[in-house]
Each structure stands twice: as structure tokens, then as C-alpha cells.
Amino acid sequence: MGRLDGRVAIVTGGGRGIGQGIAQVLASEGAAIVIADIDLDNANRTAEELQLNGRKAMVVAADVTSAASCEGAVQVAVAWLGRVHVLVNNAGVLGRHVGREVSEDDWDMTHAVNVKGIWHMSSAVIPHFKANGGGRIVNIASIAGRKGGAGMAHYHASKAAAINLTQSLAADFGRYNINVNAVCPGLLWTDMWRSIEALVTKNDAAEAVERRRVFEEHLARNCPLGREQTPEDIGHAVAFLASDAARNITGQALNVDGGLEMN
């Protein structure tokens, strides 16, 4: 018996990286998974892997920057599975440029996905939750939202907004039995890390880029637990917040970062 048996969870950006780990963990807890993604190739691969393991999973095309696309994705999920119980707003971007020269396009794109995307998907699913007696929303923010950082103002600001939006949605919709929380990942060995490695480690030598050793040395110096976080670690936190064990938790942002940020 899993903690999410009989429940349906939408995971945006669930085709790879953190989203894939979340989908895998929620499926292992018994949830039927709807991967809502703009990257259909990876989404279909992840869904097929889940299906091969005996899990119920399907894919719906969704662009979280479009309210109409989000509404359509929720409608399709309900038509397929009859009900949605959990929404995981995982889709996120870093922007094309990292460093001191951040373009206006980066600002716009990052906030359109990381902040407005949460708003669009939540707005699409909340009427369904209200009509069915409640639901759970878990937003994937970041420890970058806890404080500013050099070279990534657009990203840090978007993740701080994601945490604030989580609290606002929790305050607005708690009376409908809708819990809204956030998970703030730390450092994971993903494509996003490799795009910011030189900035975070202050080492921009060509031979250092994309090297696992640099990642591990940075964690050893800065992380109290001395180990990386994995997509599955984030998935376990999401599964907890989506389960009945967290029925009285709302408006919270949980760091899953090995102690990198303690707040």
C-alpha cells in the first residue's frame, strides 16, 4: 500500500531531471501520473518507463506560460482519469544567460515559467479541487529563493516569488481544503547545475566545466551533510506533502538541500 494509492498527480516538466524523479516517487507511492510537459520526447520516455514498471502514467502537452494550454491539460487529465488530487508545479528554467549580463528576455522567460507558470496551472486546477472537496499543490522553488545571488538575479527573484506565491495561494484557498506548499531543492547533478557550475564554484577554467569532481568538492566544502541531493530526494519530500501525513501543513517551503541553507 502506498501513501498515494488511488490518487492522480499532474507533474509539470516531469519528463526529465527533478520532475522525472518526482514522477517516479509519486508513482511508487501509488499515484497515477500525468506528465504535463512541453518536451514530449522526454515526457513519453518517462511515462513508458513508469508503465513498464506497472505504473499508470500518461502524457499531456502543456506550455505553462499559456493559461489556455494549462486549462486544456487539466481538462484532458480529468477526462482520462476522472479526477486530479495533486498538482506538482515543477516546470522551471534558468534562462539563457548566467552571469553579470542578464538580458531582459531572460527576465521575461524565467518569470513567465517559474512564477506565472505556477499561477496558470494552479488557476486551472483549483476550480476542480474546490468542486471535489480539496487537493494538494506542491511548487518546486529553490534555495535560490531564500536569498539573492550574484549573476542570477532573474532566477533568484523568480524562486523567491514562487515561495511567496505558495504562501498567498495557501492563504486564499485553505478554506477549500486545498493545501499549498513548496519544496526548495539544493544542488543536484542535473543539466541546470552544469550551466551554473563556473558561477557557483568561482572556477571558470575550461577543464572544470561539467566535471563531477568540481561538483563533489563544492558540496564537501559547503554542505553540512556533505552529499548531493537527487531528484528522488525531492520526490520523497513532494510525496510527503501530497500525502495525508501533511494534512495540516500549508503555506510552507521545505528545504531539501543537505543543510546548505538553514531557514
Task: Provide an overview of this structure.
This protein is α/β, with parallel strands linked by helices. It has 2 domains: 8-186 and 230-256, Rossmann fold (3-Layer(aba) Sandwich), CATH 3.40.50; 188-228, no CATH class. The protein has 9 helices and 7 strands, in the order E-H-E-H-E-H-E-H-H-E-H-E-H-H-H-E. It has helices spanning 17-28, 40-52, 67-81, 104-114, 116-131, 153-173, 191-201, 212-222, 231-242; strands at residues 8-12, 32-37, 57-61, 86-89, 135-140, 178-185, 253-256. It has a 7-stranded parallel beta sheet, with helices on both faces. The longest helix has 21 residues, at 153-173. The model has no long low-confidence stretch (mean pLDDT 91).
Short synopsis of the structure:
With 263 residues, this protein is of the alpha/beta class. Helices cover 46% and strands 14% of the residues. The chain has nine helices and seven strands.
Mean pLDDT: 91
- From the 3D coordinates, which CATH architecture of the largest domain would you assign? 3-Layer(aba) Sandwich
- The assigned structural class equals alpha/beta
Q: For the report, how would you describe the main beta sheet? A: 7 strands, parallel
Q: In terms of quaternary structure, what is this?
A: single chain
Shape: globular
Compute the number of helices. 9
Q: How many distinct beta strands?
A: 7
> For the largest beta sheet, what order do the strands appear in spatially?
3-2-1-4-5-6-7
Spatial separation of the terminal alpha carbons? 34 Å
Global Rg: 18 Å
CATH H-level homologous superfamily name of the largest domain: NAD(P)-binding Rossmann-like Domain
CATH fold description of the largest domain: Rossmann fold
Beta content comes to 5-15%
> Please, how many domains?
2
Order of helices and strands: EHEHEHEHHEHEHHHE
- What is the highest CATH level, the class of the largest domain? Alpha Beta
Fraction in helix: 40-55%
Given as residue ranges, the uncertain stretches (5+ residues, pLDDT < 50) are none
